[in-house]
Amino acid sequence: MISLARAQELQAAGLRWQPAPGDRFALRTLEDQVFTISDMVVEPHDYPTGTVLGFNGTTEWALDSVAQEDAVWLPREDQLRDLLGGTFRSLARSTDGQYAVLIEYAGRPERLFTADAPEDAYAQALLALVTAAVGRV
After folding, report:
1. Domain of life here (predicted)?
2. Could you read off the pLDDT of 35-67 as tens digits, one per residue?
């Protein structure tokens, strides 16, 4: 799973989330807990003022609902790869166990991002793209 710190970096860089079933997230006040959007437990409710994540039943004890902006999306490996879109070139594992994601975008030379887990390598590459898209590179 992507690290909470990397997920927070992506969020701060401007990555937006449309909550859907199967999505994982953490709350700023309960960062050691991971929640999953599910019709049975946590459902997104869209209002004119924003999206609220509603907790159903007693599974999540005292939680009733939280504003989406108080949640940090923890995208899965497949979601990260999908967000890279056409920039994604490859994922490989080196002999030392590191994962490497290769991307190419905007006519720039290919860039390689490495991490201990594939999700974090994908997230590093996505962070570079999101940052570049908002003009911070």
Report:
1. Bacteria
2. 888 776 788 889 999 998 887 765 545 566 778
